[in-house]
Model the fold of this input.
Amino acid sequence: MAIGWAAMSTPSIGVLAVQGDFREHLAALTRLGAEAVSVRRPSEIDSLDGLILPGGESTTIDRLSRVFDLREPIQTAIAGGLPVYGSCAGMIMLADTIVDPHRGQQTFGGLDITVRRNAFGRQVSSFESDLEVNGLPEEGGPYRAVFIRAPWVEQLGDDVETLATVDYDGETRIVAVRQDNLMATSFHPEITGDDRIHEHFISIVTAAAR
Done:
């Protein structure tokens, strides 16, 4: 269980469950003792302390969030200060700007970054890398990050903090960021069994609730 919030009331953290690897995020939250909620209806957002946007297909998540009338409630929640974490496709959905959007693609926005979809290549180009991630406990060592058709951050606003970078083809690429209560990673912590990223997000959620 995360240090610093064990004595607090259990945070209720939703995972957008319209497409993608939401089950793995729910499992990670449950392991850490949070109340994990599958979010498929607008009414489920109001009672949340935090929200996770999972990896998957950003274009499909965008389309289905509109089909299920989730787009505007999520945007309203983000604007109201709800802590939100996005992994891979979730990073794209939190970004204010996409370099190469699919035709008609929209995001929830809120995070002052510009991202490039599938920046590291197709699924056959998936890879792993050991990263130093700001905010994680040092005793855990480097974080073994898994990149699958991942985006990277090409530009970030003045208020956005870089949490992690990776060296790729001779360039340093930004792959984890935070802006106030919003956090995003290019990689998929939900499939590694290392819950430190989720633990860090829970600390953001509980700090925001104080």
Summary: The two ends are 19 Å apart (CA to CA).
